[in-house]
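Exercise: predict the fold of this chain.
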Amino acid sequence: MTEFDDEPLSLSAHALAALQEFAAEEKQRVEKFESLYKASEDKFDEQQQANLDDIKIDDFKEDWQLSQFWYTDETARILGKALLEGADENTVIVVASAPSVYAAIKQFPQDEIPTKHIYLLEYDPRFKVLAGSEHFSTYDYHKPDDIPKHLRNKCHRLLIDPPFLEEECQTKSAQAAKNLLVKEDERLERTKSGDKKYKLISSTGERVYEVVTKNFADTRVTNFYPEHKNGLSNEFRCYANFESSYWKFADN
């Protein structure tokens, strides 16, 4: 035993201040989230709805155990814009396992959102406060056949971001997508602007290229590279069955 063993550990004034600041920020985040969640459970009044519409993805702390990694604001904006491009009021859109994209869409001006039929599927129930009870459904990729009845084969446009790069997750996510998307005979329909009504995006890792293009035979890799706020080391790619104002096929 040395003469220092009985001395209590202490933090420097700077470290203690930083720790106290972090604790205060976390307390504020939790209190804000609890307030928002209560508002989402209640019958909305105009003020509550305004508060919920102001929610941003940064109000939600990433849970790395659930493989939650938020897109950068620019990536989320582009993916959201690509989903909405050429849509009309009858277009049904689903965002699966990509809440940062749904949050970005919520921030668009109302005149840039042509349809009210935009739904969020996510394993984490916290995101009910983002979409509201009518537009949110809990989704577990392990159970691809447990698709909400009101969305089964009703979805014209889908963005899916499988949470894990393992083949099982990718394959089961693809099965969920097939349960969501409209049937083959409806996929040739056009919106009022003449654009394709049926569009599919899978945003996931480059190293699962073979799995993605096998599961989604009509998709191709694009020249758009999704980026994350925390700088994920895995290189992500955007796979889609259409070109847009935001990307072209990379394998032309």
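Check your answer against the key: Residues 21 and 27 are 10 Å apart (CA to CA).
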